[in-house]
Write a structure and sequence with these properties.
56% helix; 13% strand; alpha/beta; 344 residues
């Protein structure tokens, strides 16, 4: 029986064809048997079109969104997220300033220079890293300083002007966003830029865009795709066959991107190796996420205990003060009685 997606993507293989290729090779069969049942089903659904493609699998995202191979795709995505048309000039090398643990949380991380001289750092994270604001601010500052040094080196001391320093954009998309984003369950795109409390206009160069893809998915379940940006976010986060069909009927050019991944899926040996790596990284991310949650919970408990101790200290001080006041009143009353007795 054909799945709905097989009508649109005839290169998709049947479950029987995939299983036959796995069982033909001892190593593939051994790898497959090591997976849990749900993982086996996920893999088979992925390869046969019973479920849609998860574009946020590491190997899918890197095949589809490589800025050196498909700059026009990255141009469009950045343009839609920034709300203005941008053109890519070149892809820049990363300076490898990431903390080692963070690299496992990243699906993609690339740096591009735009034609107006500005720099955009785009990250797609499997699991949102703790303290996203502080972390992004540090990397943004690092990029700004990198740009300053580059411009300064290209110019003489006499000709250098800070006017030559362009904007730095930090764009982070989360497959699983951190708790602070869920305080706003109806908002999935958050834009930040520095501004004055008086209305004074000074360009401080650093801008941030955070996209909670998990919130987008929850908010847009079973809804029509109205805008091009919705199309991109659906493409990135949804593996529902109905969503994929709706998307390619609304925007047919996305079909070619799905076809790229389904062609990869025809090489079962290659895709099993990549899928196995995904499972390993997922395990690492789950552990990392649980550690972050435990640390956050521990920190909150410490803060609550410190608060209670402070309140207890204040209560003791207030009680001591009240006792002194009561003693003072008693002494005053006692002295008053003595005076009255003496007068009588």
């Amino acid at each position: 029986m054909k799945h709905a997606l097989q009508e649109y993507f005839p290169m998709l293989q049947s479950r029987e064809e995939v299983m036959e290729k796995i069982q033909e090779k001892k190593e593939l069969n051994k790898m497959f048997e090591r997976w849990e049942e749900r993982q086996k089903e996920e893999f088979l659904d992925f390869c046969t079109g019973a479920r849609g493609v998860k574009m946020l699998y590491d190997f899918c995202a890197k095949a589809i969104l490589n800025p050196e191979v498909y700059p026009e795709r990255i141009e469009e995505l950045i343009s839609l997220l920034l709300g203005k048309k941008v053109r890519l000039l070149k892809v820049l090398p990363n300076d490898n300033t990431r903390i080692a643990d963070e690299t496992s949380l990243l699906i993609m991380d690339f740096l591009v220079e735009l034609t107006d001289g500005s720099i955009a750092n785009v990250e797609i994270q499997k699991v949102g890293y703790a303290f996203p604001g502080q972390r992004s601010a540090c990397y943004s500052a690092d990029l700004l300083l990198r740009q300053y040094r580059q411009v300064r080196n290209q110019m003489t001391k006499e000709t250098f002007s800070y006017r030559e320093i362009s904007n730095v954009y930090t764009i982070v998309l989360f497959e699983k966003s951190t708790p602070e984003f869920h305080v706003f369950p109806d908002q999935y795109i958050h834009k930040f830029r520095q501004r004055s409390d008086t209305g004074l206009q000074i360009d401080l160069l650093q801008e941030f865009v955070f996209v909670a893809l998990d919130i987008y998915r929850e908010k847009h379940q079973n809804k029509r795709i109205e805008k091009r940006l919705d199309g991109w976010l659906t493409f990135l986060i949804s593996d529902e066959p109905e969503d994929i069909i709706t998307l390619i009927e609304k925007y047919p050019d996305f079909k070619a991107m799905y076809e790229q991944v389904y062609e990869i899926c025809r090489n079962i040996e290659q895709v099993m190796g990549m899928f196995s790596k995904e499972l390993y990284e997922l395990d690492r991310n789950t552990v990392r996420y649980m550690i972050d949650e435990l640390q956050e919970g521990y920190q909150k408990q410490k803060e609550e205990i410190a608060y209670l101790k402070e309140q207890n200290k204040k209560s003791r001080e207030e009680n001591e003060w009240l006792l002194k006041e009561i003693e003072q009143i008693k002494r005053s009353l006692g002295q008053g009685h003595k005076n009255m007795a003496a007068e009588e």
